[in-house]
Protein 1
Amino acid sequence: MANSTALAVRVERASAGNLVRLGRTIRSQDPTWGTQVFSVADGVAVLCGDGFFVNALFAAGLTEQVSANDLDQFEQRCAAMGLPSSIEISSATRPELARFLPKRGYETSGSVEAFTIEMDDAQITRVEFEVAQSGPNLTIESANEGLLGLWQETCAAAWGHTSVEARRASDTFAAAAAIVDGPGLLIARDESDGRPVATASVTIHDGVATLGGMSTLPAERRRGIQKALIAHRLGFARSMGCDLAYTTAVTGGDSARNLARHGFQHLHTKTTHVLKSSATGV
């Protein structure tokens, strides 16, 4: 991929920018979570709070060196919130940070694959055509206003958020996404009876459309719903003037293979590193 380093930096900064807006919105909507958003070198830490899946340092070490003092301060603030120190890096990260983390006691805890597609890619037209010809009969609507409650119910059911704590975090995150994403927060319903089947989102920042929030109810899977929601969001992104779409999928999972089939190009692998002592409480 031409100029892949510059593309990777652009994508990582856009992704981090989305998380900053989400974190700040959560902090504004419900201060009881104690959400913190702060800079670390050239990156940003978004610590939404215990129970959220966004609690890490993002986009650090892209253009500047991350010092030991930077990490000291980050780790201290994580500890004060009772959170493990977690750092996300990618191929766009300066190599010295990747080499330094294991020496400091960080261990790899997981990875996702980053994919992109350009808005003028002919593959988008192909996917849209295939969905129009043989896709599931869906009504896809913005859920940032009157349908937010239905979005929250559907997402929680799809992900299995059954406990009070998990549901509170899930609903809080969705309410923040409704503000950040606006009409890009989407719910899909079956046209035959109006029942909800899936949720999705598209977040726009600096011309990059980030596809996220994808969850499908277990009974509705393998109907082509994901493909239909991808096509819808790409069309939305194009109408908003974006030139690039970006998304991630768990390494080795079905979603990663589906994205490749739909024309997305693999950009890089993103790995999460957790400080061992903070993760174990030692």
Note: The CA atoms of residues 54 and 223 lie 30 Å apart.
Protein 2
Amino acid sequence: VPLRDLRQAAIAIASVLARSRNTGRVAVLHAHDWHAALAVYYAKALASSVRGIPCVYTIHNLAFQGQERASTTPYLDIAWDAFHSIFEDHGTLNLMRGALIASDRITTVSPTYAHEIRTARYGHGLDGVLRWLSPKLRGITNGVDVHSWNP
């Protein structure tokens, strides 16, 4: 198992469990790209005190999906039924695919990118999943509107 995968899993588990032990109110869990993809799954599957918190997953670059061998699955504390139902992508483990399916909402860096990634040309193999998930996919233009927020 690549050390990178174990490190990402450890960070995701730690962040979700730390949040679950904190007594403050959590409005939403917002994860960005494949590096944080497991946090969405863990929040939904493992941490009972944060289960039910809405999860938003933002795609900055669909080309990097966190794809690994299926044999990595047990080391990341992903149940085999979850592997087959949400993470499996042509026999491999795809962390981004899992986060897309597990999340309540999906955002991208622009409305144009949200449209493009649903096509075969720009979908990097996830275009079918993204078309299926279209009702929860929105593009939000990157950046700050300095007229509405200018500290």
Note: The first strand starts at residue 29 and ends at 32.
Protein 3
Amino acid sequence: MGIQTLAHVVTCSESIKSLVEEITLLTKGKLEVLINSVGGGHYQPLLHLDIDKAKQLFDVNVWGFVATTQAFLPLLLANAEPGKKGRKSVVVNNTSISSVLRTPYHSAYPASKVAMAMFNDIQRVELEPLVIKVVGP
């Protein structure tokens, strides 16, 4: 079938559900690779940080990424077939160099990417026994 790029709104559970349904039909219920590449940001120094905007940023960069991965786990598990040698599913999480850089006047975005990077590490540990490889920083 090849590669298809499909977009959705990561902060909308209905959008995620609709995308899962579409992918389920296209792939007959199995997904080999999920690539999470999500991001939004704004520059504000800590002194003037708008907490509501920062929360929206975390909704996109952290919770949207987690919700999308959770929604696709059944398809990834269906593909992985634990016990079959060499058969794996892969989740690729594209975070940002901002998860390791300290950039002045840009506090909320890197903080959200650090959270995403930590989720990436935890996913790697939790999904490995299920034969799902997690790749990312």
Note: The longest helix spans residues 51-80.
